What we know:
With 123 residues, this protein is of the alpha+beta class. The protein has helices at residues 10-19, 53-68, 93-106; strands spanning 21-24, 28-34, 40-45, 78-84. It has a four-stranded mixed beta sheet, sandwiched between helices.
Amino acid sequence: MNKKFRLKKSADFQRVRRFGKAIAHPFVVLILLPNASDSIRIGVAAGKSIGNAVARNRAKRILRAASAAHIAQITPGYDLVLIARGPITAAKSTELVPILQNLLQQAKLIAHKENNESGTHIN
């Protein structure tokens, strides 16, 4: 993920966690809050419940990789915080891409994708 899309300051993390709307999944929690700019910023966190430093850094790395796949689709004007949960240590970033897409759709930050691009349904 490009550094210009990262949420870095502790005060920004606290603001999003305190005032934002949370959507949970067993692997990750997505917290979103509108910001004053027309850009998207994403912060990633993993607590000590994930494991040692190696496990926490791996969890953050795969969350950043999964979120980078959706940066272009996300509606600008939001700060997002992704918080890793315990079972994420067994997951791969390719498994998290559809999970993160589902969370973003629930938050109405990206549009639902149809299975068939032409709009017609095949029976």
